Amino acid sequence: MRTSLLAAGAAATILVLASCSPSTPDEPADTSAETSPTTAQTQDAPSVVVTTTVLGSVVGEILTCAVGDDSSMTVLMPIGADPHDFQASSAQVALMAGADLVVVNGLGLEEGVLDAVENVEADGVSVLEIASLVDPLPFGEEHSEDKADEESHDDHADEEEHADEEEHSEEEDHSDEESHDDHGHGEFDPHFWFDMERMAVAAELMGAELAVNGDESFASCGESVAADLRATEVVIADALSSVPEANRVLVTDHDALGYLAERYDYDVVGVVIPGGSTLGDANSSDLADLVATIQDVGVRAIFGNTAGSPALLETLANEVGGSIQVVELFVGSVGGPGSGAESYAEMMTTNATRIASALAD
């Protein structure tokens, strides 16, 4: 499979979509950082702080399995928040500082929380960064024989440019720093949860880590939750495989579905916001290129994020013309009550159903 990533979006328009996190989410997290847990702590019920609602869903199932209602977990982000755009409050930082374990996605996903996480870890708090432990994919990784051919074709050009690159290395380093400040991620894609097998492995890792602070029941519960996720993935894989191969092409608001494409044999042929974050920027010529790609490939749907505004995607669809749909997915957060995405497993099932429905003949 070959995944080609086309950055697109006009800088003036992109601000509409970049505001992915509503200033006041419709639904707060079940355990917010502003309400400190009141359950008495025991040796068997470690105090756990989790950054995202996606990870919180899985960690919560492990804790409930192991200690039932005596579990104590705080999810920093409210339901509907965009992990790229979330800022931790001072009260939330204090909760992290007093936790037995802080579970984070990592690889740059929680941009507004990373400094606080580094600080509490330096002070001795146990921090588990999951994404780096589940064989993360490089951004834009290609999974076909074409990759080797393209790399070979480009080798000579790369060598010719090498001297110029060294000559301007200081300028490029500065540019890279600015790009990082503009919310670009590093080499690896943090959106691992779109591959349910990787999340199953993550459940096992989180259960094993919790066992360090409690007892071995956490590890067995992590394995049990992982088994449930693998069973759910069978249903999801069936739904996604029902789409004809010719229709398995994706255009997304930002580069978040690489793991889904790699796992379930889809191609990402374009993204609106470059860099793997909802807070990036692009230029109008790339937007025009994306429109042309959508028309040439025959893309049937543009997939957005329930946490953001669909305005730019709808404008893009109108520019493309025809019957192309704009379909919202649950990307960085589970959904609220009645959404059909209240848990991680339900979120992935709903996403798969929406993708399959949009791309079916």
Strand content: 5-15%
**Which structural class should the secondary elements be placed in?**
alpha/beta
Instruction: Tell me about the largest β-sheet.
Output: 4 strands, parallel
In the CATH hierarchy, the architecture of the largest domain is 3-Layer(aba) Sandwich
* C-alpha end-to-end distance: 21 Å
Q: How many helical stretches? A: 12
Give the C-alpha Rg.
21 Å
Helix content: 40-55%
Overall mean pLDDT score?
A: 79
- CATH domain class name of the largest domain: Alpha Beta
Shape: globular
CATH fold field value of the largest domain:
Rossmann fold
Q: How are the strands of the biggest sheet laid out side by side? A: 2-1-3-4
Which regions have little confidence, pLDDT < 50, spanning 5+ residues? 1-43, 142-184
- For the record, the count of structural domains works out to 2
Instruction: Summarize the helix and strand pattern as letters.
Output: HEHEHEHEHHHHEHEHEHEH
CATH superfamily of the largest domain, by name, is Nitrogenase molybdenum iron protein domain
What does this structure look like?
- The protein has helices at residues 11-18, 53-67, 90-97, 114-122, 145-167, 169-181, 196-213, 217-241, 258-264, 284-297, 311-320, 344-359; strands at residues 47-50, 72-75, 101-104, 126-129, 249-254, 267-273, 301-305, 325-329.
- Helices cover 46% and strands 11% of the residues.
- Mean pLDDT is 79; it is low at 1-43 and 142-184.
- The strands form two sheets. A four-stranded parallel β-sheet has the order 2-1-3-4, with helices on both faces. It has a four-stranded parallel β-sheet with strand order 6-5-7-8, sandwiched between helices.
- It has two domains: 11-21 and 232-359, 3-Layer(aba) Sandwich (Rossmann fold), CATH 3.40.50.1980; 47-136 and 186-231, Nitrogenase molybdenum iron protein domain (Rossmann fold, 3-Layer(aba) Sandwich).
- It has 361 residues and is an alpha/beta fold.
- Strand 1 (47-50), helix 2 (53-67) and strand 2 form a beta-alpha-beta unit.
- It is built from twelve helices and eight strands.
